[in-house]
Amino acid sequence: MMFASPFLWLMMIPLAGFPLIYLIGRAGKRLGASKASISFWMALLALLVMVLPLYQLGGQVLAGQMPVLRLNAITLRMDGVGLLLSGTVLALAIAVTLFSYRYVGSEEGEEKYYALLLAMSGVIIGLGCAADLFNLWVWFEAMAVTSYLLVAFYRNQPGALEAGVKYVIQSACGSVLVVLGIALVFTHSRSLGLLQIPAKIAMPAPLVLVAGVFFVVGFGVKSALVPLHTWLPDAHSQAPSGISAMLSGVVIEAGLVALLRSLGVLSGLGAPIATLLLIFAVLNMLVGNLMALRQTQIKRLLAFSSVSHIGYMLLGLAAALGFGAASGAGGSFFHILTHALMKGLAFLSAGLLLYCLRIAAGSHEPLTVDDLAGAARRYPLAAFAFSVAVLGLGGLPPLAGFMSKWQIFVGGFQTQSPLLQWLVVFAALNSVLSLGYYAPLVNRIYRKQPSDIVLAGKAAPFTMNLVLLVLSAAVVVLGFAPGLVNALTESAAVSLLSAFGL
Amino acid sequence: MQWSFPMIVIVVVLGLLGIGFYGLLIVRNLIKVVVALQVLAKGAMLALVLAGELAGQIYIGDSMAITLIVADTIVAVIGLALAVQVRRHIGSLDIGHLSKLRR
């Protein structure tokens, strides 16, 4: 009955598929297939096929079960958090793959790109479902490795190399610290299972506190907690746009999930964890928004806005973990989903403009704010999609970003704690501040005269436009009907709170 | 004070971590940075073996250390591959020259 398991299929398709995609794509090129896009079709097919087992598993998880996959000593267990992360990854990866058909079609090493994209999706699903601490680290490291290679995809560009080097060094230091934390927890509790450890730790134990610090710093590098975020703007702005969307939409959130899972092991600590998350929430919102205000490159601006959005997520999580407002966690998971859609849309529509204005002409110069002037005349759909995305990120009412932020704020107010209520006001003001750099972009796109670069730009390819249309529709629909994903976010919140023993 | 075996190992682990972090702070050459990262990873590896020993489950500690060897080799390979490309396209291995992306 082993092969009847949808879970096994879900893990096998990407992990067995990605080397095949690379080898076949490579062989196709060697045999002189004109315009070898076979790797594109294989990656797209694999991702689409993965939807079926995920749908089946999703039904089981939402019905309250926990599907388990055992391969020798390795156990994977899908709970609500894992399901939410897997669904988000798969949706965004399909959009990014379709988008990249033309974007990387003219680049050398196309087969590497699709193989790594599929591998990254599979590995993040594994990370969401890992059931023991060391396993969690292995998936985390595998995700890091695939993302190093994708960030430095333009390996002839000095900018991409610089971003890659910074990312590798910071991330490798972080992962060493995580390993040290695991060694400490293992010494103390003699166990690695995420569910078994909490019962075996006698709190408060100083060594375990040290392990907690290692986890926060180590996973914090990947999830861009503020003093550790410096790799992010470089990596996001230098990677191919599809990869920027993946990094910003799911990779840093996967880091956040890994952080939560590892802190769940130390749940005996209780309230101090929430306080720590609140401190990072404030730092992330403030630094992310203030730094975004002074950017002139579009992709760097969007990257700093990701830093601030991690802050909103942390606020909701802290309200749930330390102050007993469960709806805060639901809001945060909803925000993970909507942020992936909105930031994915923002990076992809910026990517379309970058492709048409720069890359198609053989240039790798970054896209600046001035280049956007009057883009709506020539690229109406991309302009509309970009506006939907940034206004959603800024939290304007009928869009998805407003709904998820609103739910986080409601969670914050339900805590009845004055501190949290002040922080919600602070977060709302930060949202307004963020409109200070989003709104001028929209204004510039629609109300300025088209610049010479825009007039000379190439026509937008159909596949890119299609992806933007679907994602914008999703952002608008989730804004009007947030209840559609209620079951998903609620089950994620329940799983998280039960991991923390709440 | 008696020096027990675990204490000696702990001192070695801390020593390796210290050398690694100190190296990362002072070294300018990209290849030496990769070496410093390797020293750090070796410290973590020893810590895992010691954790297995102290927890009384030596085989788990060892298998984690072996997994770490694989992971850390991959990171070293990527680091060195980036170093080759950096030398080729930027013309220097000094990380001081890797600061074009400001702000």
Word description of this protein:
The complex is a heterodimer of chains A (502) and B (103). Chain A is mainly alpha-helical. Chain A has a domain at 270-502. Helices cover 76% and strands 2% of the residues of chain A. Chain A has helices spanning 6-30, 38-62, 80-103, 110-129, 133-151, 158-189, 197-200, 206-222, 231-238, 241-265, 271-293, 298-323, 326-357, 375-378, 380-394, 400-414, 418-447, 452-455, 462-480, 486-499; strands at 68-71, 74-77. Chain A has a two-stranded antiparallel sheet with strand order 1-2. Chain B starts with a helix and ends in a 14-residue tail after the last helix. By secondary structure, chain B is mostly helical. In chain B, 30% of the residues are buried. Chain B is built from three helices and no strands. The chains are: A mainly alpha (502), B mainly alpha (103). The interface between A and B is large, with 42 and 43 residues.
What is the spatial order of strands in the main beta sheet of chain A?
A: 1-2
Percent of residues in helices of chain B: over 70%
Per DSSP E runs of 2 or more residues, the count of β-strands of chain A stands at 2
Amino-to-carboxy terminus distance of chain B: 52 Å
Report the span from N to C terminus of chain A. 36 Å
Reported for the largest beta sheet of chain A, the result is:
2 strands, antiparallel
Q: Beta-strand level of the residues of chain B, as a percent range? A: under 5%
Q: Can you name the CATH architecture of chain B? A: Orthogonal Bundle
Question: What structural category do the secondary elements of chain B indicate?
Answer: mainly alpha
Q: How many distinct folded domains of chain B? A: 1
Please identify the oligomeric state: heterodimer
